[in-house]
Design a protein that fits this description.
The complex is a heterodimer of chains A (383) and B (299).
Chain A lengths: L2 H15 L6 H13 L5 H12 L6 H13 L4 H11 L12 H7 L36 H12 L8 E14 L1 H11 L7 E7 L3 E6 L8 H14 L3 E6 L3 E3 L1 H4 L4 H11 L9 H16 L5 E5 L11 H11 L2 E6 L12 H6 L5 E4 L6 H9 L8
Parallel strand pairs in A: 3-4, 3-6, 6-7, 7-8
Antiparallel strand pairs in A: 1-2, 4-5
Helix pairs in contact in A: 1-2, 1-5, 2-3, 4-5, 7-9, 12-13
Chain B lengths: L6 H10 L6 H13 L3 E5 L5 H12 L3 E5 L6 H4 L1 E3 L1 H13 L8 H5 L5 E3 L1 H6 L8 E5 L6 H13 L1 E4 L3 E4 L5 E6 L7 H6 L1 E5 L4 H11 L4 H16 L9 H13 L7 H11 L3 H7 L2 H13 L1
Helix pairs in contact in B: 1-2, 10-11, 11-15, 12-13
The chains are: A alpha/beta (383), B alpha/beta (299).
Chain lengths: 383, 299
Amino acid sequence: MTALAVNVMQFARLLRRAGMPLGPGKVALALEALQAIDIGRRADVFHALHTVFVERHAQSQLFRMAFDRFWRTNAGVAQTLSLEEAAKPELREAAKPAPRRIEDAFGTRRAAPQVIPDEIPEAVASWSAAETLRSKDFETMSAAELAEARRLVRTLRLPITDVSTRRFRPGPGPRIDMRATFRAMVRAGGVIELKRKRRVTRYPPLVVLCDISGSMEPYARMLLHFLHAVTNDRDRVHVFLFGTRLTNVTREMRQRDPDEAVTRVTRAVKDWSGGTRIGEVLGTFNRLWSRRVLGQGAVALLISDGLDRDGGAGLSQEMERLHRSCRRLIWLNPLLRYAAFEPKSAGIRAMLPHVDDFRPVHNLDSLVDLIAALSAPVLRKAA
Amino acid sequence: MLLPNTIDDTAELLRRGGYVPDRALATSLFLALKLKRPLFLEGEAGGGKTEVAKVLATMLARDLVRLQCYEGLDIASAVYEWNYPRQMMAIRLAEAAGRGQDAALGKDIYNIDYLIKRPLLRALEAHKSGPPVLLIDELDRTDEPFEAFLLEVLSDYQVTIPELGTLKAIDPPIVIITSNRTREVHDALKRRCLYHWIDYPSAERERAILKARVPEAGDKLNAQVVSFVQMLRGLELFKPPGLAETLDWAHALLALDARELDRETVEATLGVVLKYQDDIARVRGDVAARGVEQAQAAQ
């Protein structure tokens, strides 16, 4: 094997460890590509390997870092390790606690301390003024909880109807399936029996924007498990978490193991339990993501108490834009543990006119309440 | 026309066709041609993705076969459809000739003469001028089932028609796939392709493109337009203007006989560059005035 081939293989291995999934075919293709160009020109080598190895725009920066480090001198294994750490710290194997389910399996587990306090002090329901950047440690899920969560999520019926697609399948309907009719006719020898087809209907994509600021803290653990179950239960679900900034955690949520998923999500999100800037966050979403995820008749689900640090600045326009970009906008508001809720906060007043479906939940203690609130028939259109 | 042999040749080929590529695009395209892989071009709308395929087809003197994707695109409109009225007629004629119950009839009406060829099938056929350029435009608009089907076509360059058998391309077409990223295209499909992200051009390249495309604008207007558009792209607008908007704007300004930017003309023509009312409202007034000043100072 040539030195070049060895280097390309090592480089691919490095990219793989940094989180880019590359099959062996890619290495062969990269070698072919390098044979086709003048490898004396560093920029051309960069572009050639880039076009072969990178599959998404988001990987571009990681690739650039890896390339600079790896090809600065000739490939070296010592560098490789340090790069890996620099490139994607969240992939390093941290000493993680054994998932609770494993302990459950061995029956060694003692009764766990309750994480969610029974009564939330009022102070928590306000929002902190400073952007606190901290990480979060969620207790892992027990086997029974996991099974229960899965079962509950299957009972979830969002108040949205299936959308009809432009695809057809055989079945009763007004349209005639010419292809099937002709095939049947040839088989039957000249007798024409009309075959029909009908439209395929399908669940629309779901985009969840979930508030994880300080005032939402009591619900965070439950919400994460809910979002994980929803993401893995159906296709075309996108999940964003926000406090003072917006994080797309869809890929992290797709991990099948809920503990692993929650661990990855908590590492990806930098603004747990801080303040909320709903207007700014929705603005970011509208600019960077709405065109990418709200296509094909998507339904948006906003989970937030509407307590906004910026006092609702710019919120109305961004909500209006969001409302216009999706098929249906549902707002689940778990603020209100007090029955006499009035939308007094500036944020709430700015948001209410722009939602199709407002679902206040006065007592959100469990997944059961959450799912019941979401599955209930449409009560009223928000004024 | 022979395929280019080096990256420089590829860049030159595009340039002669009026497309000003950067080195990265030239490299990707060269490798796609050389390694016979589909090229997956992704980027914001109006960046010149479709144009790559068009210019390539023209400059290589190949046919361009275009498949415009949309939601619900199916095999009947992407690959083939039987010509039912003609088949029906053939059956009637056969009946009139007393061959209505003939066992051979089934074979006769599923003849290639009754086949309506759609873009994918046409791209696999032999073309006089050599393998065509197959442009699969805005793939993100289709749904996953079509993507899965396409994966099969692109790996073997063949399609199967149950009544006729498998049709395989002798020479695979040059495939260019574009996506506006309104949805993530599945990794499995991307894995077959070479990938290139078309970004907004740098000011220098944008001036070169404008000069190649709208030479009558002249250096002064050219530099001012590019300066203003680049300023807009830094504003975090809902939809920043793409390259297509820059070209449209230059044409619009020429149509108004503007030789340089002034505030009044800019305000009157903002709708050519910005397509959302919020964005226009934000730019109109102070921002536009500052942009015009900057543009005038720039050249």
